[in-house]
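Memo to structure team: turn this sequence into structure tokens by end of day. - J.P.
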Amino acid sequence: MELILTLVSGLAWTLVYVEAVRVGFRDRTYAMPVAALALNLAWEATYAVGDLRSGVSPQGVVDLVWGAADLVIVYTYLRFGRAELPAFVSRPVFAVWSALLFATGFAVQLLFLAHFGAHDASRYAAFLQNLLMSGLFLGLYAARRGPRGQSLLIAVAKWLGTLAPTVLFGVLEGSGFVLGLGVLCSVFDLAYIGLLVRRPGAVGQAS
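Reply from structure team:
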């Protein structure tokens, strides 16, 4: 069961990243909320190093693949993101803001690591930033007044990719903290899926 849930999560999140890259270039925007993107990139870089320090491991390789995909999504943000901000946000201001945001993502991961240790920090940080991402996807939908730069495939894959480790760590391993965060993620993810399904033409954006 543990292997199955791990594989479901890995496959689902890989679909999220691949689709986010595709949709970002298609719609000339970024397909993942930037604060969550910064935390994701930092998480993958931080724990890929830890996983691979003692040798090549499946999780370490997956983290590297996800990190590479995140870098492409970061490119779409840097390439198209300024166009979605008010005109008074100059290129230098956008550059400084972006650098600060991504540096903060790494600082947060290192603080979690220092306080909780690698085992707990990787899980707590992952679920907290996952919950943040769930809420920010709803905010992205509202800010763009529709599903531009988003897709039903991203929404469903994100939900399943989070639900599988929620069952694994929250139910099978008995972590009430992870279970609570995972349930909250599902509430927001299902609300987001509902928005995309109700939006005319939203289903077609998953293809």
